[in-house]
Design a protein that fits this description.
This protein is mainly beta and about 375 residues long. It has one helix spanning about 360-365, and strands at about 1-10, 20, 30, 35-40, 45, 55, 55-60, 65, 75-80, 85-90, 100-105, 110-115, 125-130, 135-140, 150-155, 165-170, 180, 185, 200, 215, 225-230, 235-240, 250-260, 265-270, 275-280, 300-305, 310-320, 330-335, 340-345, 350-360. The mean pLDDT is about 95.
Length: about 375
């Protein structure tokens, strides 16, 4: 079992965060919503810009670093459901100026955003999960020297609404990353800019997490799916099977039905034993009071996959005034330099840092 040191960074209610070197001093900083917190102690807070508060939400469902304008400084990619706009915020390179925000596209309501280098160019493309709109991705246009120009090219790869949930999984094992959605998967062609991609309606995952994770859970050589219910109870894995005629089918297995609103998931080797662990938890009041279990205690967990047994270890659990979940976009990064990945967890309950201290003494003796 791992030992985590918990610390409240801020009581701000932004639901997304990230870690990167904002000011170029070689030390990672924490970014969340309207502020960035200067490393290594994260007690000095600097304003990014005003982020609109919309009801009990903020207009910030993602905080991803990308040098958009090619000036060598990491900027921010963001967006939200309410303003229906994919945006970037320009890092001014100092602590006195606000970061200016520029719309990339008015693309429809954004659940959250994920990133993958779909064409192998070395810079990840932007994949917003827009449940009411067809799936699209955005490529940063770069100049002859490979620097960002501040412009993006949009490619729409499906014809129907995407639905709630998205992930990057090579379903058919052809070496090309496919896009997994709540009602099926989009098969990547040889040229990812060929459109539309072929859609395979092979499942119905409900209000699926972002991301939906692909992983060979049982070691049979076929990729399986790990899916949280983002707006209800349940965490499951879907086992890929092959019929005698070569067709694919899927068997759903329960991981955990004790919690609701498993909105964000990550696979990381937390204990450095060479095996990936599943890290997830509750997004507190994801639809405010509208989801099953909205006011249940919040929690942050990791699961040892163990061939599909999924042994659960609680990192934090309790009332929202005291404990943390994962928000809509949490981040994992070794902030302390001890080699063990730390967890930075945002949410309506506050922004927390869980410093990974490594195995407990009982494990190391």
């Amino acid at each position: 079992m791992l030992l985590f040191k918990k610390r409240l960074i801020s009581d701000s209610k932004y639901e997304a965060c990230s870690v990167f070197d904002v000011n170029g001093d070689g030390i990672p900083d924490i970014v969340s919503g309207s502020f960035w917190y200067e490393g290594p102690d994260y007690t000095r807070r600097h304003q990014i810009c005003d982020v609109a508060e919309i009801g009990e939400y903020h207009d910030d469902f993602c905080d991803y670093p990308m040098d958009v304008d090619g000036d060598g400084l990491p900027d921010l990619i963001t967006g939200s459901w309410f303003t229906e706009s994919l945006r970037w915020r320009r890092n001014p390179g100092n602590t006195t100026e606000e970061w200016t925000t520029t719309d990339i596209d008015h693309c429809g309501p954004i659940e959250t955003i994920r990133f993958y280098d779909i064409d192998g160019c070395g810079v990840p493309e932007i994949f917003p999960n827009t449940p009411t709109q067809p799936q699209a991705f955005y490529k940063l246009v770069r100049d002859a020297d490979g620097r960002g120009t501040g412009q993006f090219r949009k490619t729409t790869i499906s014809t129907e609404a995407s639905g709630h949930g998205m992930g990057f999984v090579d379903i058919n094992g052809d070496g090309r990353m496919d896009i997994v959605l709540s009602e099926g998967w989009l098969e990547q062609p040889e040229d990812p800019y060929q459109k539309p991609w072929t859609f395979h309606p092979e499942w119905s995952l409900g209000s699926a997490s972002v991301p939906i994770i692909g992983h060979d859970v049982n070691g049979d050589g076929l990729v399986d799916l790990i899916v949280g219910q983002a707006h209800g109870y349940g965490l499951h894995w879907y086992e890929q099977r092959t019929s005698d005629d070569g067709s694919r089918y899927w068997i759903r297995h329960l991981i955990d039905d004790s919690g609701s609103q498993f909105h964000d998931l990550q696979l990381v080797d937390l204990d450095l034993d060479g095996e990936l662990e599943l890290i997830t938890g509750k997004r507190y009041r994801a639809h405010n009071d509208g989801d099953p279990g909205a006011h249940d205690p919040v929690g942050l967990y990791y699961y040892r996959i163990n061939g599909g047994q999924f042994d659960k270890i609680i990192i934090d659990f309790g009332p929202a005034e005291e404990a943390s979940g994962t928000g809509i976009y949490f981040w994992i990064h070794d902030l302390t330099g001890n080699g063990y990945p730390d967890i930075i967890a945002p949410g309506k309950e506050g922004l927390y840092l869980f410093e990974n201290m490594g195995p407990t003494k009982e494990q190391t003796t």
